[in-house]
Amino acid sequence: EPTVRTELMEQIPPIAIFLQESRPKFPTAFFEYLMPIVVRYLTDVNNQVRKAGQEALLILLEQDLIAQSDIENKVCPILLDLSAPDSDDEYKVEAVNIICKMASMLSRTTVEHMLLPRFCELCSDGKLFQVRKICAANFGDICNAVGQEATERLLIPKFFELCSDSVWGMRKACAECFMAVSYTTSPEVRRSKLSPLFISLISDTCRWVRQAAFQSLGPFISTFANPSSAGLYIREDGTLSIRPSTQDVNSNSCQPSNNITLMSSSTSAT
């Protein structure tokens, strides 16, 4: 029964945590018994079971309970199969969503070598606009996961494609994550490539795209500032924050905090 399998998947993370804490007694139980179940349920015929399996997988990755070898040899291959060009549409959409969510939890090497090539392919998926939409919405997170060199070499050309997509929702998603993408690039790329691209979004024919671009204008401009002098930095939750200088803090020690937090465009509501 699908409900039984769903309930089972919900119990996998707490069992895995217990086994991790009791590892001297159960050194290989998770890898031998539970990990194969998680991987198998990612391809279950029932939608609710697959969803429970995906949630369990993300929790296990977040808790650092899956060994690097299992990530590379078991998890990534199944996700690459599910996101292949000839894969079922529903499976492909789910797979690209998981790939984007797990990118921030994996090592840069694993993401760049195993997942980045497929992500670039999915950005140009001509069959499903839902796949391209997920890629656009999570573009900033992928850039942050692979770093500046891979972003400028492989991802920026794909970002240009998405920013000129015929579906306005794609262009809107790009406008919302523009600051996060810009933050990962060099000052020269921001000036010569991203600035003209942003102008095209802020002049878009669709008012929803223009509105999203105007909301991202301030955060995008902030990426041109020198972090050491401006005090700008990106928090772990994806927000752009302005840290006041030590001199300002000392001179206003009796005043309320002047910290300003701007929501990153990658986390704004769609």
TrEMBL record:
Region (Disordered): 246-270
Keyword tags: Repeat
Coiled-coil ranges from the UniProt annotation: none
Any one GO CC term of the record: cytoplasm
A Pfam short name: HEAT
InterPro entries cross-referenced by the UniProt entry: ARM-like (IPR011989), ARM-type_fold (IPR016024), HEAT (IPR000357), HEAT_type_2 (IPR021133), PP2A_Regulatory_Subunit_A (IPR051023)
Top-level taxonomic group: Eukaryota
Renumbered ranges of HEAT repeats: 115-154
SUPFAM superfamilies xrefs: ARM repeat (SSF48371)
This protein's record includes keyword Repressor: no
UniProt GO molecular function: protein phosphatase regulator activity
Alphabetized PANTHER family for the sequence: SERINE/THREONINE-PROTEIN PHOSPHATASE PP2A 65 KDA REGULATORY SUBUNIT (PTHR10648), WW-BINDING DOMAIN-CONTAINING PROTEIN-RELATED (PTHR10648:SF7)
Entry protein name: PP4R1 phosphatase
Gene of this entry: Ppp4r1_2
